[in-house]
Amino acid sequence: MDKIKDKLKNSNYRITGQRSAILEVMMDNRGKHLSAEEVLAEARKTVPNIGIATVYRTLEKLASIEVLYKTRFDEGCYRYELSDEGIHQHHHIICLECGQITEMEDDFLNTLEQQLEDRGYQIIDHELKIYAYCPSCRKKV
């Protein structure tokens, strides 16, 4: 929480009641990938009059100062997750049946990144999405 407060302070980002509610939703859902609409639904439990535009603006600002990670999945919308580290290198497995998103913390692309860096590239970040059927959905078939 201290890292988040530092990032907010360093960016001169004022925390209003609505912004605080959005941040609390993200902190309560650590490790989950929430859409703006899901954040809105949760935030309205504590701030009923919060609007979707406020949620979008706040999520974008929090992503721009690296409090949140913003990832686009195949359903066409962005999903946000709380940033715990300065470097975002984990992979997602997305179930084609139920849409469940599972994170894999192991970094499988270290060798590829090293090869690219050896060729002169500067790697900033990467994102890997694996599409599969989760164990629960596989049992249904």
Furnish the topology, listing elements before pairings.
Blueprint: H1 2-10, H2 17-28, H3 36-43, H4 52-64, E1 68-72, E2 78-82, E3 91-95, E4 101-104, H5 110-118, E5 128-132, H6 135-140
Helix pairs in contact: 2-3, 3-4
Overview of this protein structure:
By secondary structure, this protein is of the alpha+beta class. The protein has six helices and five strands. The protein folds into two domains: 81 residues, Orthogonal Bundle (Arc Repressor Mutant, subunit A); 50 residues, Dna Ligase, domain 1, CATH 3.30.1490.190. 40% of the residues lie in helices and 17% in strands. The strands form two sheets. It has a three-stranded mixed β-sheet, with no helix packed on it. The protein has a two-stranded antiparallel sheet with strand order 1-2. The longest helix has 13 residues. The N and C termini lie far apart (43 Å). The model has no long low-confidence stretch (mean pLDDT 85).
